[in-house]
UniProtKB/TrEMBL annotation:
Protein name, as recorded: aminomethyltransferase
UniProt family annotation: Belongs to the GcvT family.
Enzyme category, top tier: transferase
InterPro entries: GcvT (IPR006223), GcvT/YgfZ/DmdA (IPR028896), GcvT/YgfZ_C (IPR029043), GcvT_C (IPR013977), GCVT_N (IPR006222), TrmE/GcvT-like (IPR027266)
Reaction(s) the record says it catalyses: N(6)-[(R)-S(8)-aminomethyldihydrolipoyl]-L-lysyl-[protein] + (6S)-5,6,7,8-tetrahydrofolate = N(6)-[(R)-dihydrolipoyl]-L-lysyl-[protein] + (6R)-5,10-methylene-5,6,7,8-tetrahydrofolate + NH4(+)
Sorted UniProt keywords: Aminotransferase, Methyltransferase, Transferase
GO CC terms: cytosol; glycine cleavage complex
Residue ranges occupied by any GCVT N-terminal domain in the UniProt entry: 1-245
Enzyme Commission number(s) of this protein: 2.1.2.10
Gene this protein is translated from: gcvT
Organism listed in the record: Pseudokineococcus marinus
Binding site for substrate: E178
Keyword 4Fe-4S: no
N-terminal signal peptide: none
Length: 347
């Protein structure tokens, strides 16, 4: 077990380890309990327009029944958190921020909310169970839950007469779903889902596999690829910014940075030899000059090689060879654009 955002979370489950759990998701199906994630509901007249004026992405691009990746930024463009916003209508938006930042996101929204709009912290009202992998549809079908929604779509459903929101979202790069039952129903739904997962040669999965899966995809993790010092422009998530919107937190700073060009950018690193990459390692160019730092790193079970995400000087380009200092040894790495493996979220 490990502390994660103030929650005690399993790094792995008994009976196989991180690599086996990782491969289960890539080849069959995995089940994750990620109920530590925050849940913040914003409702009241004009709630969607209010949220849109705060978060970076453009809620006007989606319709009710759709979800959207977005960012909560400071006025200087730093990232307080990244989150998923589920649009329920003009007067209601449900958001899922990271566990460690949920309280601050809620407070920032609450402090800016106009009269008639309320911001509710529903962290312990809902659980989040993620069913991820090629066999995910089979698991949901066996549970009597709806399948077939487009990526980032969601629907209100029921399981054994109890409400559950079924979302076509995930953090693994595979086709999958995230289920939001009531907190008190989560244990029973977990048991039923795990039975179906195991029937398809799948596994219960912990934070270890979640991290290796997201790193293979190049997905940002707040506190690593996104921080108050690493902006969306630097992290290459400018696609989650509604540049044409008249207002959102950090707009002026981000527009200025995009116009000037960032001084550093996020890249992937693929190890050219044996060695495990981790966060916080120095990266040097072919002349021995420090050009950046790794922000995440792991051994990729899919590729059988070390992979990392790194924040590098703007002069670094794709296919450059760099050296990462791994315990005093220079490990050669090629600069690449993630993902490291095929994206099958829309499969």
């Amino acid at each position: 077990m490990a502390d994660f955002g103030g929650w005690s979370m399993p790094l792995e489950h008994a009976g196989g380890g991180v690599v086996a759990e990782h491969r289960a998701v890539r080849e069959a199906v995995g089940l994750f309990d990620v109920s530590h994630l925050g849940k913040v509901r914003v409702r009241g007249r004009g709630a969607a327009a209010f949220v849109d004026s705060c978060l970076t992405n453009d809620l006007g691009r989606i319709a009710p029944g759709r979800a959207q990746y977005s960012l909560c930024c400071t006025e200087d463009g730093g990232v307080v958190d990244d989150l998923i916003a589920y649009l329920r209508g003009d007067d209601e938006v449900f958001t899922v921020p990271n566990a460690a930042n949920a309280g601050e996101v809620a407070e920032r929204l609450r402090g800016a909310a106009p009269e008639g709009v309320e911001v509710l912290d529903e962290h312990r009202d809902h659980a989040v169970l993620a069913v991820q992998g090629p066999e995910a549809d089979g698991v949901l079908h066996a549970l009597g839950l709806p399948v077939g929604a487009d990526y980032m779509g969601w629907v209100d459903a029921s399981w054994r007469g109890r409400p559950v929101v079924v979302c076509r979202t995930g953090y693994t790069g595979e086709r999958g779903y995230e289920l939001l039952p009531r907190w008190e129903d989560a244990g029973e739904l977990w048991d039923a889902a795990l039975e179906q997962v195991r029937a398809r040669d799948g596994r219960a999965c912990g934070l270890g596999a979640r991290d290796t899966l997201r790193t293979e995809m190049g997905y940002a993790l707040h506190g690593h690829e996104l921080t108050r010092d690493i902006t969306p422009v630097q992290a290459r998530v400018g696609w989650a910014v509604g540049w044409g919107k008249p207002a959102f937190w950090g707009r002026d700073a981000l527009l200025a940075e995009r116009e000037a060009g960032p001084a550093r950018r996020s890249w992937g690193l693929l190890a050219q030899g044996r060695g495990v990459l981790r966060a916080g390692l120095a990266v040097e160019d072919s002349d021995g000059r420090r050009v950046g730092t790794t922000t995440s790193g792991t051994f990729s079970p899919t590729l059988g090689a070390g992979v990392a995400l790194a924040l590098l000087d703007a002069a670094v380009e794709r296919d450059d060879l760099v050296a990462v200092d791994v315990r005093g040894r220079a490990l050669a790495c090629r600069v690449v654009r993630p993902p490291f493996v095929p994206d099958r979220t829309r499969a």
